[in-house]
Protein 1
Amino acid sequence: MEQNNYKGWLYLLPAIAFLGVFMVYPLVDVFVYSFEEGYNSASQTFFGTGLYNYAYVLHDPYFLQAVKNTLILVAITVPVSTGLALLISVGLSSIQKLKDLFQTVYFLPYVTNTLAVGLVFMILFKKTPYTDGLVNLIIGLFGGNSIDFIDGPYWAKMFVLCFYTVWVVMPFKILILTSALASVNQDYYNAARVDGTSKLRIFGRITLPMISPMIFYLVITGFIGAFKAYSDAVAIFGTNLNAAEMNTIVGYVYDMLYGDSGGYPSYASAAAIILFAIVLTITCINLMISKRSVHY
Amino acid sequence: MKVVLQNVTKKFPSRSKKAPEDVIAVNDFTFEIPDGKLIGLLGPSGCGKSTTLNLISGLQKPTGGRIFFGEDDVTDLPPENRGVGLVFQNYALYPHLTVRKNIMFPLQNFKGEAKLTREVMEEKVLEAARLVQIDGLLERKPSELSGGQQQRVAIARALVKMPSVLLLDEPLSNLDARLRLQTREELRRIQQETKITTIFVTHDQEEAMSISDMIIVMSAGVVQQIGPPQQVYDDPVNLFVAKFLGTPPINVFEGEVREGILYIGQEAVLQVTGAADQPVTVGVRPEGFVLQEDGPLSCNLSRVEVMGRDISVVSTHPLCQNTAIRSIISAENQHSVGGQTVRFALKPAKVFLFRKDTGERIRFEVD
C-alpha cells in the first residue's frame, strides 16, 4: 500500500497540473498584486508594496456602493428564493394533476437565453416613449403612479434586480428540492400519520430535517452565487453600472480591469481579495450553523 | 379490542393498458380477531398481507366492506383517529431524532385535553423503553443502533401511546436468524404483558406458527384458513395450506382412491373409508412415515441425514411431486435403514387427500 503511493499521485497529476496552472497560480498572483502599488501588467512594473490598494478601494465611494448593493442583493434574494422554491416544491409534490406541466413551467427560466429574459424584463419594467411597461400599467389600474424601474429611484431599481435574480436562480432550487422531497421514504410520513401528526408538524419535524442537507447546499451555493452577481445587473441596467448606482463587487472588479475607467489591476485584485474574504466568512458562519441544524 | 373485517375488498386500478382489469389485492375478507390475541397473517409474497394491514391501519381505504374496532365502524376514519400502532418493515425510525425523541413523537401529537405534560411524557417513554429493554439507549440516534435494537425502538414507539391495536409489517424480516428467534419470543412476551390485540404480517410460516394464538393463511387476496396454528397444521382445508405450512414441507404424491383404498401407483398404501373413488393428490407430512420392512409404500433411498434426536430419510418416488421425499423418523430406528429401497407405512392422521382439480380437501375416516 505504502510503496504504491506515487501511483496515486501520478493519477492525480493531470488534474493537479491543470488546477495549479489555471486556478492556484492566478489566485496567488491576485493576492500578490493586491499588495503591489500601481502594478502595470504590460510593463510588469510597480512602485512599491503595502496596503495602499486596500485603503484606496475601501475609500472609493463606487466600491462602497457596490458592497452595499451586493449585501442587499444577497440578504434579500437568498432567503426569498430558497423559501419560495421550498414552498413551490412542496406544492408540486403534493399535487397529482398537471404536475408535469407545472414542473416544466417552473424550470423554463433555467433553459431560457439571458437576452430573451432581458427582453421580457424590458417589456415588464422599461419606460419608453410609447409605453410605461406592463408592471406600470397594472399599477395604474389600481390607481398608483407610474414608477421608472430602470432609471428611477434606487429602491425601484433594487427591486427589479432582486426580482430578476430570484426568478433566475429559482428553477434550479426547485429542481433540487422536488427531487429531495421525492426521495424521502413514504414510510416516515405513514408512520407520522398513524400517530396523528398534524401536517404542519410533519413538515417541520420530518420533511425539513430530512431534506436539510439539500437546503443547506442551496443556501451555501446561493450565498456564493449572489455575492458573485454581475451579469444580472448588466442584463437590466447596461454596462455603465456605476452611473446607475447598481454596481456589484464583481462589477467593480471588472470595471477596474477593463471598464472605461479601468486599467488598475492592483485595485481590482484588492477588491477581489476583499470579496473572497467576505464569502469565506459567510460560508464559515453557514457551516457552523449547519452543524446544529442539518441532519445527514 | 377486537377487530372485525366484513367483506373487505381492495382493488387497485390497473396501470397497464395491455391488462386493463383491476388488480384485486384483497378479495372479500371476513374474519373476526378476538380481543387481546396475537394473530399471524401468513402468506407468500404478493398475496395481499400488507394491504390487509394497511386497510386495518387506515393508510389505505377499502373499495368495499366494513372494518370494525370493537363495536365502532372505523372504515371511514383516517389513520390518526383509529388509535393503531404500526411497526414498519424497515422500522421508519426518524433518523435525525434520538431514541427518546422517536418514542416521544406520538405523544407530542396529543391535542386539547389529551395533551400531556413533559414529565408524564418522559415517564411513558421510559416505561415503553423498559418494556422492550432499550432504556439504556435513549440518547442514541437510530443509526447508532443494531437492527434488533432499532426493531425494539420501533415497537416502543408504536406502543407508547397505548394503541387499541398493534400492527406489525414483517417485523422480523430484517433481522438475522438468531436475532429473529430471540425477537419473536420477545414479541410474544411484550404482547402478553400489554394484552394489546396484535396482528403481524409474515411470509415465514415457522415464525407465525411459533408465537401466534391464531393464524390467518392467505393466498392471492383470499383467506384460505383461520385457526390456531396447530389446528391449521393438523387439519388443512386445501392443498395450498398443507403445502405452505410445515418444515420440511409436506410430501405430495399423485394417487387414486378405489373402493375406499388409497393407491399410489400400484401399491395400496392406506385404507381411506368414506372417500369417493377418484384420482387424488396425496399429502403426507414428513412425520407421517413409519419405517416398516413390509410397509406398503416403497421408495428409492437416496441418503439418511442424522440430526441427533431425529433422522431424516431422503428418498425418491416416481409419483412424488417433490424432488425428494423427506421423512422424519425418531433416531432409534436408524439401524433398519439401508439398501436400495426403503419401505414405509403411513400414519392415517398425517395423510391428507385433495381433489385434483380444486385442491380442496377430501376427508376420510381415521380410526
Note: Chain A touches chain B through 19 residues (CB under 8 Å).
Protein 2
Amino acid sequence: MAKLIELKGITKSYDGQKVIDSMDLYIRDGEFITLLGPSGCGKTTTLRIIGGFETADEGKLYFDGAEISDVPAYKRNVNTVFQKYALFPHLNVYENIAFPLRLKKVAEDDIKKRVGEMLKMVALLGFENKSVSTLSGGQQQRVAIARALISHPKVLLLDEPLGALDLKLRKDMQNELKTIQQAIGITFIYVTHDQEEALSMSDTVVVMADGEIQQIGTPTDIYNEPKNAFVADFIGESNIIDGIMLEDRRVKFSQHIFDCVDGGFGKGEAVDVVVRPEDVDVVAPEAGMLTGQVTAVTFKGVHYEIIVDIKGFKWMIQSTDFVAEGAIIGLYIEPDAIHIMKKSKYSGKFGDYSSFSDEMDRLSDADSAEEF
Amino acid sequence: MKHLSRAYLILIFGILYIPILTLILFSFNSSNSTASFTGFSLEWYAELFASAETFIALRNSLILAVLSALISTVIGTAAAEGIYKMRSKFMKSAVNSVTNIPMMNPDIVTGMSMMLFFVAVAAIIGLEYESIGFTAMLISHTTFCLPYVILSVLPRINELGDSLSEAALDLGCTPIQAFFKVKLPNIMPGVLSGMIMAFTMSLDDFVISYFVGSSNFQTLPLLIYSMTKKKVTPDMYALSTLIIVTVFVLLVLSNIKSGKKLDAKKKGGK
C-alpha cells in the first residue's frame, strides 16, 4: 500500500498553546486509520489540517506525493463526516446527498442514479423527500456519510461521528462503517476518544496525547505492546508497576523476581511493568507469586473486577470466579503476561487503582439518539 | 386578583388602541368635525384618492423605503458576515458599537449632520442641492436603516456557526458558493426581518427626512407634517387608517408564517 497522505513536522498553536507539536505521520492508501486520544490531545486539529479547515503553523502536508499545505478545502479530494453531521437544514435528504454533484453540474439522470446507490448503501431508501430535521441521530449520520462519499473522495475524514449516538446504535454503526470502508476500499481517517471503537474498527491506531504521537501500530500491537504508561493506561485497563530489569527476561517488581519475555534493557534499569487485569490468575495464597488482600469486588457481567492491595499498590484483576471482599488471595502471572516498558514522562501517573472508581472510568455517553 | 389583572389588561390595551380606533372612526365621518361623529361616509377616502400631491408623496415614500431597505439589507448582511469573521475580539466589538451609532444617535443630530454633509457635497461638486435631493435622501435612509439589518442578521450568523459553511467547503463549494448556497438560505429569516424593519423605519422617518429632504422630493410624513401647519383634514385620517390596516395585515401574515414554522419544528424535533 502506497503512502497517500503524509504529514511532516506539522505544528499548530492556538493563542501560544501548542496543540500539535512537530508531528510526522503517513497514511497508506485504503487503510482504516484511527487517531485516538483524550480530548485536547490534538487529534481533531490534525484531522482539520488534513481536511483543509486549519492551516499548520509549520510543517508540510502531502497528498499523493504533491504538497497541499496551502490548497483550500474545496479543492482537496477529501471529504468529511462532521461530529454534529452538519446537514443542510434547508434541503431534504435527496438534495443533501446530491449537493456535491449539483456543484459539479452532473447530469440529472446520473445524479438520480448515484444518489439512489448511496441511499441503498446507507439503508435509507424511501427517505428521499424527508426533511433532515425529522431524522433520528443515526439516520442523520447515514445521510452525512452518503453525502461525503457520493463524489468518490480518495479519503474520508470522520470526526467522532458516533459520539452523539447511544451505545447499541454506536456498535451497529461501527460495523457498518467498517463494512462500507471495505466495500469501497478508500482510506478512512477516524478520530475518536473511545479506545474500544478504535481497536475494533481500525487497521492502524495512532495514539495521541499532548499534541504528540505516543504510538502507532495495529490494534493488537497497541494493546499487547504499549510503548509507555500513557498508552497502556488509555487502551484498556492496566496495572503499571515500577520494576527493575535484572537481566534480559528477568524482572523484579513488588519484591518478587519474575520471568518475562522482554529483553534489550540495561542491567538494573528502572522500567514500567504492565500487567493486564485479565492476564492475572487468582490462586490460593500459598501458590501465588504475590499475595494481597481484596479491597473491592464489582460484578461486571462477564467477570468480576477485583481490586487487590499488594504491598500498598492496588492491582485490578478481572476474574470469572467470585472472591470475597477482605479475603487474602494469591496471584499467578505467566511470563508472557508481563510487558516491560521504558520509563517515560508518563511513568507513575497511571496504572494505580488506589483512587479507582467506576464513575471516573465511565465514558460520557452523549444524549442518546432515537432508535429507528 | 384575577379581576384586577383583567382590568389592568383592558386599561393597557385601551390606552394603546382607543386613539387608533378613534382615528379610524373619524376617517369615516361625514363632516370634518373632530368632536362629533355625524354619520358614515367615504368622502375623505374619495378626497384622498383625488389628491395628486398625496399620491406623489406616497409614491416617493414607497420608492425610498423599498430602495433603502434593499440597499441596507445587502450592505448590512455583508457587514454582519464581515463582523462575524473578524478574528480580533476588540475590533469586533469596536466595529459593532460604531455601526450602532446611527441607531443610538438622536435623529435630530443625525439629520442635521447629514444635511450639512450633503450641502457641502453639493457645493463641492457644483450642483444645486435640489438635484441631489433624492440621492441624499436615499443615502441617509440607508445609513440609519443599516444598524437594524446588522442587528437582526448578526445573531443568526452567530447561531449558525461555522459547521455548515465548513461542510459546504468540504463538499466542493468555493467560499462564495458556500455563502450563497448554504449560509444565506439558513440566515434568511434574519435577513428578511431586517429588511422589513428597514422598510418600516424608512417609511416612518420624519426627522432625518425633514433635514435632508428638498422641496422637490416630498415624502408622506413630510407632507402630513406640512399639512398640520394649516389644519389636519380628515383625508389624513383616511390615509392613516389605510396605513394601519396595511401594517396590521403584514403583521398577521408574518405571525401566521412564523407560527407554522414553529409547529413544523415541534413536529420535527419530536
Note: Residues 53-232 of chain B form a domain with the MetI-like fold fold (CATH 1.10.3720.10).
